[in-house]
Amino acid sequence: MKQSEIKALISLLDDEDYEVLNHVESKIRSMGDTVIPYLEDRWEESSLSPLMQKKLEDLIHDLQYNAFLERLVNWRKNGSEDLLEGIWAIATYQYPELSLEKLRQDVEQIYYEVWLEIRDGMHPMDQIKTLNSVIFGKLKFGANTKHFHSASNSMLNVVMESKKGNPISLCVIYLLVAQKLNLPIWGVNLPNLFILTYKSGNMQIYINVFNRGLVFSRVDIDSYIAQLNLDQNDIFYQPCNNLDIITRVLRNLTLAFEKAGDDDKVKEIDRVLVEMMK
Hints:
This protein is of the alpha+beta class. The strands form two sheets. The chain has a four-stranded antiparallel sheet. It has a two-stranded parallel ribbon with strand order 1-2. It has helices at residues 3-11, 18-30, 36-43, 50-77, 83-91, 100-115, 124-138, 156-162, 167-180, 218-227, 242-260, 263-276; strands at 142-143, 164-165, 185-188, 195-200, 203-208, 214-216. Helix 5 runs parallel beside helix 11 (242-260), helix 6 crosses helix 9 and helix 11 packs antiparallel against helix 12 (263-276). The radius of gyration is 22 Å and the shape is elongated. The model has no long low-confidence stretch (mean pLDDT 94). The longest helix has 28 residues, at 50-77. The chain is 58% helix and 8% strand.
């Protein structure tokens, strides 16, 4: 459809005929998020009534949300292989124009900083110490204890910029860099605290990224599980997959919006979780 035709279609959104209006809205929705810039241009016009502005805002939000939902569902259907793509898709919920390539470049820069310090034949503990030194020492990433439950902790672009995150967002950054270095590091779904594990052959240790990369053992996890009065479960010790990570980030988002009292956003994220599991 030509630009002039799209603009003409949008101009009919204030038509008083219900059937015409219903047809116009359906047609616009069918065009997907490509029509959003035209809706935004229309919204910026000073002559609009409050009712028309609200209608445009609702349409823009619905189109952005549907695009966000489609990204995550397609990521899941395509095998959920690219963790960065999944975490980027989540960030587009609040930052719909966020570039995946921009995030890749940001991760690449952190990787480069670590790569400069890593040496061939390093002992695993020295590899972890190097990652910790660069990420937490040189680059100043750290725990967002002040706003632990903020939804921004699940937005990787915000975490990259502020250098503050929650356990899983910091783990994602650490993990993405470790993967680019071909280190045997994976995520672990520990209750209330997402961690990483370095697992190679008979060697397995754990990394608390939220505590500046503190290294600990299986015995420490045993004690932690006992304090929570939980039975031991293999998922508390062994690597999880990318889908597990993205699902947990989405559940963190639900909790953040619940604490903020934003019921509409809670419902929207819950719907994503349901659609992804189909």
